[in-house]
């Protein structure tokens, strides 16, 4: 059984999913891969962990870094989960590149090779948007790249965190 809840936010309606203990998904309405990892047995119900997510989002959207993260358990391959774990290490208000994430993965996995493109695919399939901050990943030259939730949402999230954007990256 999975539970879902809709939450209004400055970037649109969010759908949050949980197994009852952990957050397994957070999607922005209309995003690519929307609810892709959501199972068949789903109940829309307000459960305690969704209150934690609301609190986290309230703090985040007020322009501050939350000092906690609700327990997360995204569904994906071991490789994807390793990349998503590294996304969680990107500090609020900072960015990294796909290439840097690839290097980090290789260091943590005894030289197991990966490419920036493979990292990009894992980042793009992150099922827990915002909480797992895939919006903080930018291109090698500091350019914005795609975002499953939409580039306009990525810009909004980065600006909220005080991350400066080049003139080429504004809408």
Description:
The protein has two domains: 2-61, Double Stranded RNA Binding Domain, CATH 3.30.160; 78-164, Winged helix-like DNA-binding domain superfamily/Winged helix DNA-binding domain (Arc Repressor Mutant, subunit A), CATH 1.10.10.10. It has helices at 48-61, 78-87, 98-108, 116-124, 151-160; strands at 2-7, 14-18, 23-28, 42-44, 96-97, 137-138. With 171 residues, the protein is α/β, with parallel strands linked by helices.
How far apart lie the N and C ends? 41 Å
The helical percent reads 25-40%
Number of domains: 2
Mean pLDDT: 92
Give the percentage of residues in beta strands.
Answer: 5-15%
The helix/strand series, from N terminus to C terminus, equals: EEEEHHEHHEH
Using the coordinates shown, work out and report the CATH topology of the largest domain.
Arc Repressor Mutant, subunit A
């Amino acid at each position: 059984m999975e539970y879902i809840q809709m939450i209004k936010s400055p970037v649109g309606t969010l759908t949050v999913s949980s197994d009852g203990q952990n957050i397994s998904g957070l999607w922005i309405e209309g995003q690519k891969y929307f609810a892709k990892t959501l199972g068949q047995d789903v109940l829309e119900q307000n459960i305690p962990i969704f209150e934690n997510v609301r609190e986290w989002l309230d703090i985040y959207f007020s322009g501050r870094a939350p000092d906690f993260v609700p327990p997360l358990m995204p569904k994906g391959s071991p490789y994807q989960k390793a990349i998503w774990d590294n996304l969680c290490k990107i500090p609020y208000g900072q960015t990294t590149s796909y290439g840097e994430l690839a290097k980090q993965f290789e260091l943590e996995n005894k030289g197991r090779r990966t490419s920036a493109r493979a990292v990009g695919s894992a980042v793009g399939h992150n099922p827990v948007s915002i909480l797992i901050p895939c919006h903080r990943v930018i291109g090698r030259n500091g350019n914005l790249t795609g975002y499953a939730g939409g580039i306009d949402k990525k810009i909004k999230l980065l600006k909220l965190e005080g991350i400066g954007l080049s003139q080429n990256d504004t809408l």
